[in-house]
Specification:
heterodimer; A: alpha/beta; Rossmann fold; 4 helices; 5 strands; B: mainly alpha; 3 domains; 24 helices; 2% strand; globular
């Protein structure tokens, strides 16, 4: 195994998946790649806004984009710090899109041997759009998928 | 087409459908059986004009787009790339106004014997309701294709055009009266809801950024207010998703339930307009609820929009207050927000409200009131004698009986009634007031006749009639387009503490404003 892709939003489930991925990487010597997918649907939040001028909407977009990227950076920096501490080779990336489309695409691009995800939590997390539609994802993955409970 | 680079036949296809429909409707008779059954024969010409002209414009742009795809120039983005979506919304407007609404009307009548009530009338299943519903179903099932997206975005602009045009429909008397009560009610409910949400957020331990954005959305004017407030309270992604999802969800429930509740409670136009303008969270949905409640006249819409505009004017003020509130509560220096009151006031002021005010100002100069028409109180009158409209002999006999009874204690009122009998109609604005005063001395039947005498000399000038027709189309178009922005994906984001606070504050606002309106607001 040479490359493991970990999809993470920093939720509790994702942290367990990260821990499992680190264990596998240490056992196999594989590289890790942490992927944070920003759901492209966040732009539709302003759909029903009709009365603000375009500059107000743009200010909202800039703010929202900044906040979401800030959170993604926090999650990935923590991952990178752990990788450095555990001396596991790792990269990170942030991609905007639908998780069920981006994860298989990135796995194929990286030539990943395994995708690692956290299992869906019974309670909703505090992360924006952290749930991944597993049915759709399963139909598209190009390699084995490991779901960590 | 969304990136402005692709060649797409969409606009041409939509244009050909519009032109084909116009020709089939007017010249072939294929649809005449169905149209007659739906009672829409008298509207064939209206439909023909709308479909044909929209189709011709679409055809020109459709061919142009096919020959040379829209680029990144402003004209290409604002006009050429929107044609296919605009044409589709016009088609949906035609379908809902001339087919779906009459169809539900027929079904409502047919089911009345079984249900004991007309469900179409009771639930306000008119073209506005059905248009929004169609938009919601469309976006949540087949989705908005890329070729439609630029056109759907024009809904915002067209809705603003509707509100601006509405400005011409008010008299000074109406605006003064409605403005006064709307200012009192809106100030109370906007400030009250914002404070309630901030207080609930504190006792529930919610993040200040969440509470800030939620208070703006629930207190002022829904999603637009949340969008305006989010950057100043440094809302996180999840705060925005929770708040906007919740505000949208409560707003949609309000939109579809308010008209039915208003009808069941026997509200008049003023009462329902005031209630919808105060209690419905999203400002676009206020116009929709008013038109669902009362699609025939625009009286409810006029009241609701005054309330709506009043609360929109509160938006910059609330944003400033929230910015100050947020800055005071943050200990970390980098989280503090610098508040420039002037900048926020200018930035967040909705410019189209100036258009509304300007249109009203034009209207009061009499520019839309041709010779022969006189604006008096909240109505326009035309006193030109018209034999078809004059009072009938039996009605005149009753007025004469009132004159003869000597019950009318005021001499000029008595004289106005004598003139009414002599001329068979009211002939001046002074007489309008005196005949209204005479109602105090009349029995029930004669009072009705005096009201009728006033009504028959009321007349809407042709320019205003035409503007009203355009305005209704603007609202229908804008609301169908906005219906296409109501996604389940956004509403299902609602959750967490925002859901609890949202339900309590939203329901409290709707219920309390309902009783306030019923108790304190009667008739204009």
């Amino acid at each position: 195994m040479k490359q493991i892709l970990v999809a993470t939003h920093g939720t509790e489930g994702a942290l367990r998946a990260e821990a499992h991925a680190f264990r596998l990487a240490r056992l196999t010597g594989a590289r890790l790649h942490a992927l944070y997918v920003i759901h492209k649907g966040w732009g539709s939040l302003v759909g029903l806004d009709w009365l603000n001028a375009s500059h107000v909407r743009m200010a909202f977009y800039r703010h929202a984009e900044g906040e979401i990227h800030k959170r993604a950076t926090e999650v990935l920096e923590r991952f990178a710090a752990r990788a450095a501490a555990e001396q596991v080779p790792a990269e990170t990336s942030v991609v905007v899109g639908l998780p069920e489309e981006v994860i298989p695409r990135e796995a194929a691009r990286l030539g990943a041997d395994l995708i690692v995800l956290g299992a869906p939590a019974s309670r909703r997390s505090e992360e924006y759009r952290a749930r991944i539609p597993l049915k759709k994802l399963l139909k598209a993955v190009p390699c084995p998928l490991c779901i960590v409970p | 087409m969304s990136n402005g680079q692709e060649r797409s036949p969409a606009a041409l296809i939509v244009a050909l459908i519009l032109i084909g429909y116009a020709i089939i409707l007017k010249h072939t008779g294929i649809l005449s059986g169905g149209v007659e059954w739906l009672g829409q024969t008298k509207h064939i010409d209206d439909q023909y004009v709308v479909a044909l002209y929209a189709g011709i414009v679409g055809l020109v742009f459709g061919l142009w787009n096919l020959a040379s795809p829209p680029g990144r120039a402003a004209f290409d983005q604002i006009v050429r790339s929107t044609v296919a979506g605009v044409g589709t919304i016009i088609l949906l407007g035609l379908a809902t106004r001339y087919y779906l609404e009459p169809l539900f009307k027929v079904w409502g009548h047919a089911a009345k014997a079984t249900l004991t009530f007309d469900f179409a009338a009771m639930f306000g299943l008119n073209y506005i309701f059905l248009g929004i519903l169609l938009g919601i179903i469309w976006v949540n099932t087949i989705g908005i294709a890329d070729w439609m997206k630029p056109g759907v975005k024009t809904a915002r602009l067209v809705l603003k055009m509707g509100v601006i045009t509405l400005g011409a429909m008010y008299s000074l008397t109406e605006l003064k009266y409605m403005g006064k009560i709307s200012l009192i009610m809106i100030a109370f409910f906007v400030i009250g809801t914002v404070l309630l949400v901030l207080w609930m957020g504190t006792i529930m331990g919610a993040a200040r950024s969440l509470t800030g954005v939620l208070s703006s959305g629930l207190g002022v004017c829904g999603v637009s207010a949340a969008v305006a407030a989010a950057p100043v309270v440094k809302a996180r992604g999840i705060d925005m998703a929770y708040s906007i999802g919740m505000v949208l969800l409560i707003g949609v429930v309000g939109l579809f339930t308010f008209p039915t509740v208003g009808k069941m409670a026997g509200m008049n136009e003023l009462q329902f307009g005031a209630w919808a303008g105060t209690g419905i969270l999203n400002s676009a949905q206020v116009a929709a609820a008013a038109l669902i409640f009362d699609p025939k006249t625009i009286e409810t819409l006029k009241v609701a929009e005054i309330f709506n505009i009043t609360r929109i004017l509160f938006l910059p003020i609330i944003v400033i207050l929230l910015a100050v509130w947020y800055a005071k509560g943050e200990e970390e220096e980098e989280m503090k927000t610098e508040v420039s009151i002037g900048k926020v006031l200018v930035d967040k002021f909705p410019i189209f409200v100036l258009g509304f005010i300007l249109m009203f100002a034009f209207s009061t100069t009499g520019v839309f009131t041709p010779t022969g028409y006189q604006l008096h109180g909240k109505h326009t009158y035309n006193f030109k004698p018209d034999a078809k409209k004059q009072l009938k002999p039996e009605d005149l006999a009753k007025v004469q009986a009132l004159v003869d009874s000597k019950n009318v204690a005021i001499p000029e009122v008595q004289k106005a009634l004598e003139d009414l009998v002599a001329n068979k109609q009211i002939t001046s604005t002074a007489q309008v007031d005196r005949v209204e005063k005479a109602q105090d001395f009349a029995d029930k039947d004669t009072k009705k006749i005096l009201k009728h005498a006033d009504k028959i000399v009321q007349a809407t000038p042709k320019p205003l009639k035409t503007m009203r027709e355009y305005m209704v189309w603007f609202f229908a178009y804008g609301l169908i387009g906005l219906g296409m922005q109501i996604t389940w994906e956004t509403m299902r984001q609602a959750g967490g503490k925002a859901a609890v606070i949202g339900v309590i504050a939203g329901v409290a606002k709707a219920v309390l404003s309902f009783f306030v309106v019923l108790w304190f607001i009667k008739e204009l």
